[in-house]
């Protein structure tokens, strides 16, 4: 649900979603309804706990809780930081609707509704997160680290990728199945890397320079340093690992966008 830090905040958001399940959400038993097993991004196995309707409800209610928590620190919609974030999110959301892109990165979004909305909170945290179905929060502390629109797009596309890939629903499903803490951390790191991968493709199809994703994480490394926690014990890849992966994925995303622009990736069913 979050890609850039604040484990306590992430746990609170997960708890908000989890409480909805305790309150009586019905788990779907068939894949067509959105629950159960199925193929996730890239065709991998991805158990999901929430149907599309439940995912939308969970996101809406958790978002309201977050807004209540930060009441008084939410920037007005006319503030330049809010206008900037909304403009970038709108552009990335249009990219997410491109069907050949959905196939390129293996998204499973048929039947789902995404309500892309962003609030900016006056808070020194270098952080942002996206709840199920697209409700987002950006803390002002991250905005100066993202020195350009392209770098801010790297942050926001990563967060949107968590929603598009149903990572919160998957996390709930995996927690219900149990497993060791180390295995859980491994899944969390995988989701973070997957969000980086999906996010850089969203950037490319939104006509942002994907090299800006690499630039952002280099700035993050300089601004915050590397965590002293070994990666094996962390729920995030190291900054250096992300930079290494994004340097590989950025040109792949550019190539996919070029192929789309040149008509070499056609919509499904096109001749």
Structure description:
- By secondary structure, the chain is mainly alpha-helical.
- The chain has helices at residues 7-22, 52-69, 80-96, 99-105, 149-164, 167-177, 181-205, 211-224, 239-261; strands spanning 117-121, 128-130, 135-139.
- A three-stranded mixed β-sheet has the order 1-3-2, with helices on both faces.
- Helix 5 crosses helix 8, helix 7 runs parallel beside helix 9 (239-261) and helix 8 runs antiparallel to helix 9.
- The longest helix is centred in the last third of the chain and has 25 residues, at 181-205.
Strand proportion, as a percent range, falls in under 5%
Rg, Cα atoms, Å: 18 Å
Main beta-sheet annotation: 3 strands, mixed
Trace the largest sheet across and list its strands.
Answer: 1-3-2
List unreliable stretches of 5+ residues.
5-9, 18-34
Topology as H/E string?
HHHHEEEHHHHH
Give the class from helix and strand content and strand pairing.
mainly alpha
Mean pLDDT: 85
The helix count comes to: 9
Give the overall silhouette.
Answer: globular
First-to-last CA distance:
38 Å
Which key terms come to mind for this protein?
271 residues; mainly alpha; three-stranded mixed beta sheet; 9 helices; globular
Secondary-structure map with pairings?
Elements: H1 7-22, H2 52-69, H3 80-96, H4 99-105, E1 117-121, E2 128-130, E3 135-139, H5 149-164, H6 167-177, H7 181-205, H8 211-224, H9 239-261
Parallel strand pairs: 1-3
Antiparallel strand pairs: 2-3
Helix pairs in contact: 1-2, 3-5, 5-7, 5-8, 6-7, 7-9, 8-9
